[in-house]
Structures are given as C-alpha cells and as structure tokens.
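# nightly structure sweep
# worker-07 picked up a monomer target from the shared queue
# config: single-sequence mode, recycle default, output format = structure tokens
# input follows
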Amino acid sequence: MEGILGRKVGMTQIYVEDGTVIPVTVIKAGPCLVVQRKTADTDGYEAVQIGLVEEKPAKPNQPQAGHFKKAGVAPVRKVEEFRLDSGEELKAGDEIKASMFNEKDYVDVVGTSKGKGFQGAMKRHNFAGGRGSHGSMFHRAPGSIGSSAYPSRVFKGMRMAGRMGGERVTTKNLQIVKVDAEQNLIYVRGAVPGPRSGYVAIRRAKRG
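# output follows
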C-alpha cells in the first residue's frame, strides 16, 4: 500500500536519546477503509480508493451514498486514490491503519496550503520593494511590468498581486520519527502544508 489519509493535529517537539530536540507535525492517520478497488481490466490501471473514517458521520448526496453502499462501507467525507501493484490483494471494506508505516520511513505529505486571500507582490512573490524612507514614494509597489511602445502588452505569467495560498502542496522526503499505532498517530519531522485539522495524504517517498 502506497499511502494513507489523515488530518493534521498540530506541531510539537520530541526529545531523542542524546537530548536533541526534533520539531514534528502530528498527523492522525486513519483508520481508512477501502471504498473501491480499480484494476487494469476494468479501469485501465491498478489503484485503490480509500476513505478516512471520522467520528462525525458524513452526509453524502444520493450518488455518493450509492457509491458507498456498493462498497458496503459507511459514508465518509474525504476519499483519495492511491496506485497499487497488481499483486496486492485489497478489496472494498478492508481497513488500513497507521501501523503500515515504521519509524525512520520517508514520506511525502500532500495537503492544501493555508489560504491568504488577495496579497501584494512583496508578500506573494518575495519582491524587495523600494526604500522605506527619504520620500522615495516607492515602497511596496511591484514596479515596471513591461515596455510601452513594444510589445504594448503585458506578457502572460508576469508576477503580480493576486490570490495567494489555498493550493495543493507536496512536502517531500519527510522522516517519520514516531508511530503510535494504538491512537493512529504519525509524528513526521518538520512542517506539513495546511492548517490544523486539515486533510493530508501521506505517501511513501520515492527516494532515489
């Protein structure tokens, strides 16, 4: 199995044997249930769709309710698809837990970054801006965005002010420091994208 779904609990720190402090993100990973098994014969590729089981029951619409009823599992809010090897035996209703990972494993964590709304060029793209004093009248503006006579237009992709955050972000090669199988908690070294209680997908890292 390549990965599991979870929710970000928050950040803390762990002391190791030599006294070193390691900043970690706590993720409540699973338990997850297999909602659908996709095969090369029926779908053209090998994958499994899993859903995160939560305390508060989900309220699906009619098509979603039928999808979960076919799998024989309770409706869930968050589902995600993970690729599989053709030899893996997983079927609808099977349970996946945090114990699938071990300490010192490397993972990629996928989440949605915090939305920051409409931001200026300095915050959004790390522009330096102008000097802050002596009446320069140029402080946090983006500056020139193109020529006048030619080409008489602004090129696509010009870095300007605009909507920032709220995007799918992958943080790669994070090491698992601790796995609490009883409470389905995974402690990952470093920060992961998204706010507290945000959904994340944990995948095995493809380290070369």
